[in-house]
Amino acid sequence: MYDVVGIGNALVDTEFTLSEDALAATGLTRGNMTLADADAQAALFEVLAKQGITPAKQAGGGSAANSMVAFASLGGSAYYHCRVGGDEMGDFYLGDLESSGVTVDADFAVHRDGITGSCAVLVTPDGERTMQTHLGTSSEICADNVNFETLGSAKWLYLEGYLAMSPSVSDALTQLHTTARKHGVKVAVSFADPAVVKFAKDGLLAMLNRGVDAVFCNFEEATLFAEADGEADPVNALLKYSELVVITNSDKPAIIACRGDTGIIEHHIDAAPVSQVIDTNGAGDNYAGAFLYGLSQGLELPVCGKLAAEVAAAIVSQFGPRLSVADYQAIKAKTL
C-alpha cells in the first residue's frame, strides 16, 4: 500500500530570525540541534523575547516527517509513525501531514496525556539553522506507536537518525527492521544532524549494524562518522554499512556512491543554483525525501540526485522546512 514507511519525532517548529550576536547569547551550538526540557525551552523563548525577537513562522517539522512530506508531495505514497500529545499542537501536526498527502493514524500516534514536541529554529543571516528541541511525548515513542502491518507491501522503511537519542524506541526499531526484511522492504537511514553522530553514535551504529540499503547525510556528519570509525574517507567508511551512500555538501556537489561489480561507483551531482539562502532548515530532509522518491520510481541515481538538489534549493530559498504540494509538483515537472 505504501512506497515508504517512515518513523521519527513529531515536532512543531517555531522559527526565529536573529543576528549572530543574538544567537551567541543563547549559548546554543551553531548549526546543531540541542535537546532541552520544557523549562529550558521556556527560558530560551524568554531570552529571545527580551531582545525583541518574535517568531517568523510556525509549522509542522521533524526530520523524517519533512522527508515524508517531500516524498508524498512529489507523488509517492507515504505513511509516518510518530507520537504526539492529545492537544491542539498534536491535532495541528497530524492535520498538517495529512494535508500534504502523508498518511498517519491517530489511534497509534496520539498519547492523550502527552504534550506535543516543539522545536525552536534559530536562523542567522547566512541561512544557517540552529535548533533547540523539546521532544515532549515524542521522547517516549515506542512499539505502541507503530503499526507494523504498514510494511507489508512497502518499498522502503525510512529511519530518522534522531531516534538514536531515544532509548524508548529501540525495540520498535528492531521489530521494524525485522519486519522490513521479512517482506523484502529496503531500509534507509538519515543521520539528520551532526549532534546525532557526536552524542548518539552507539544508537546510530545499532541502526546501521542491522543492515541498511541507503544512508543519507551531509559532509560534516559523514566526516565525523568516518573519524570516529577510524577512517579517513567518509565514502569508504559508510559503504561498510550501506549499499548506497548519499552525502550532500551545501552548495558543493553531492556524492552518490554505491558498490559495483568492479568497485565503488561515484556520481558527483551539482547543487542547484540559489540566488539567496534564506533558511537551511529542512534542506537535508527534503533532499533525502526527494531522492528516495526517485529511487521508489526506478529513476537512475544521477536523476534522483538532480531532483533532490532542485527540491533542496527551493527549500533554502524560503522560510520553513516544507514547500506546498504545488511547488513540489512544479519542481518535478521541470526536472523529470
TrEMBL record:
Indicate the segments forming the Carbohydrate kinase PfkB domain, all copies: 58-324
**Transferase as UniProt keyword:** yes
The UniProt keyword set, sorted, is: Kinase, Transferase
PROSITE patterns, per database record: PFKB_KINASES_2
Q: Which InterPro entries match?
A: Carb_kinase_PfkB-like, Carboh/pur_kinase_PfkB_CS, PfkB_dom, Ribokinase-like
Q: Which domain of life is it from?
A: Bacteria
| Pfam families linked | PfkB
Any single GO molecular-function term of the entry would be: kinase activity
Q: Which PANTHER family match?
A: CARBOHYDRATE KINASE PFKB DOMAIN-CONTAINING PROTEIN, SUGAR KINASE
Q: Which family does it belong to?
A: Belongs to the carbohydrate kinase PfkB family.
Protein name as it appears in the record: Adenosine kinase
What taxonomic classification does the UniProt entry list for its organism?
Bacteria, Pseudomonadati, Pseudomonadota, Gammaproteobacteria, Moraxellales
